[in-house]
Amino acid sequence: MESDNVSQIVSGSGSKTTPLRIRNSDNYGHAIPGYAVLNIGNDKAVDVQFFNSTSEEVEFFKQIKQPEQVSKTEYAEITSDSVSASIYSKEDTDKSGFYKFLWGDRYRDEYSTNVKAKVANLDTLMGGLKPFRKGGGTQSKTLHLKASNGKRYVMRAMKKQADQFMQSAIFKDQYVEGQFTETASEDLLEDIFAGAYPYAPFAVGALSNAINLAHLNPQLYYIPKQSALGAYNDGFGNELYLFEEHPSDGHNELATGNFTGEIVSTVDMLQDVLSDESKIIDEKEFIKARLFDMLIGDADRHQDQWRWLVFENDSKTIYKPLPRDRDFAFSKMSDGFLFASGVTLIPAARKFRKYEDDLKDVKGFNVSGFSLDVAFIPESSKLDWDEQVQFIQSQITDAVIDDAFNNIPKEVDPQSIIEIKKILKERRANLQKISDRYVKLISRYAIVTGTNKDDYIHVKALENGKVEVSLYRKKDDTIKDRFHHKIYEPKSTKEIWIYGLDDDDSFEVEGKISKIKVRFIGGQNNDDYKVESGKNIVIYDYKSKKNDLSQAKKARIKLTDDYNTNVYDYRKIKIMSIKSFLP
C-alpha cells in the first residue's frame, strides 16, 4: 500500500489467516497464507511480488520504483579554475525593516555575497572521486565520494535544505520532501538558517591546530554539474560546497603518534569502552574539546557530532575525540525579537542564544552535550578543567585568531569578521568563569560504569561526608588492578550512579554514607552486595536473577525486571529535567 508517497509492504502470515479489510482500492491485500518478495535490480528498479504459499503462484505484482535512467546529458568540459558564486541570491536576503526587527539581521549579507571559489573536477580531485551515496543529514545536502585509494570524502552544500529539515524534524511520520519548494515556509526556514555563520568551519581548523585538537580539513569549492556525478547530477552540482574528509578509517593524516588509523562512532566507542577496562577515553582531550565548543559557541554537540580516533599505547586502547560539523560556531540564531523571546521562554531553544562575550547559560547551551560529558568524564576533577582552560587561553592567542580568519573568503564583509574576532577574544578571557559554571553543573550527578566482565565495586565513606569510589577487575574471585578511582565531595555532588553492567559483580559499601546518595544498578547476571550501613544506599537489580543481597538488608532495595531501570544508557540524565530521571 502507499501513503504519503511512501510504499509500505506488510507480508502477512505464512500459515495463519485473519479477515482483511482494504480501505483503498489502489492497495492490494488477500486473506490467504503467503509471502512477499522485494526485488531490487542493478538498475535500481524495485518491484514486489506476493506469492500464494500453497500454490507458489504470483498473486500480485507491482512496480514500486522505475529503473534509474542513465543521464544522456553531455556536460561541458571544466576549464575554469575558479568562479564567483554566492550561497543565496541578493533577492533571497533582501528584507524589510520590520522583518529584520522580528528576525534580526543575521548573516544575510554573508550568504548573498559572491565569493571566489576554486572549481572542483571530481575526475581529478584527490586523484579522482566517485560518488556512491547520498548523506542523511537533517539540514545539509550531502554526497559521499570515494577515492581510488579507498579513502572517503564528503561534499556538503553550503545552502541548507529547508524541506530536508522539515522532513526530519517536523514531519517525521509523513513524507513531505519537495512539497514545500518555493513556499513561504521554505523561504522562512532558509532565512532562519542564515543565523549560522556560513564560513565558520574554515576558521575553526586553524584554531583547533593551536591547541592540538583533532579536526577535519574543510575546503570551499564550486562543484559544477559534470559527468563524474553521474545520476547524482539531478540533485547536486552548480553551487558552493564544503568538501572534507569523511571521518572513517584510512585518514591517517588526521593524527600522529600511536594513531592506528581507525576511526569509530560514539556508539561503537562506548561499546568498546564498556567491554574491557583496558579501553579508555582520553578525558583530558575530551575536556579540551568541550571547552573549545564553548569558546567558539558550538552548541550542536550531540553524539553523532563526534568520531573517535583509536590509539594504541602499551596495553591500553585510547579513544580521542574528533569533533565534526562546525556549522553552528559563532552563530546568532536568536537575532531579532521573535527568536530572542523564544530562547528566553522555551527551554529547548536556549542553545540557540546569540554568540556573545560571555556564556552564562551553560545549562541551556550544553543541552545536546551534557549527557555525554557526565558519562565520558567520570574521573576528572575541576583541576583538570582548569588546566585545559589555561592551555587554551595560552595557545589561542590574538595572532592565532587573526590568522585563522584569514581562511575566510576575502570578499566576505570584514565587519562581521572583526565583530566575531572581538567576541572570541572576550570569551577567551571569560573561559575560566564559563568552565567553573559548567563543572559545578555536571558534578551534581555522577555516573560510574564497570565493564561487561566481573568487577569489584568498592564505596567507602570518608570524613566530612566525602565518598571514595574504586573499581577493580575481578578474575576467578580475586581482586585485580584498580581501573577507576575518584573521591566525591558533598558540596559539589548530590548523587552517584554506579552501573555494574554484565557478568557477576560484587558491590561493597564501607562505612556510613552520610551526605551523598549512592545508587547501585547491578545489571545482568548474578551480583552480590555487602552494605555496612544502608543510609543513602539504593540498590536496583533484576527480580528474576539470583543476586546475593543477604548482606545488604540495611540498604533500600528495588528489584524489578523492568529493562529501562536496569540497563545502562548515558542519556538517562538530561540537563533540563535532571531530577526526574532514575537509573
UniProtKB/TrEMBL annotation:
Region (Disordered): 1-22
Polar residues composition-biased segments: 1-18
Superkingdom of the organism of origin: Bacteria
Protein name: Surface antigen (D15)
Annotated organism of origin: Winogradskyella psychrotolerans RS-3
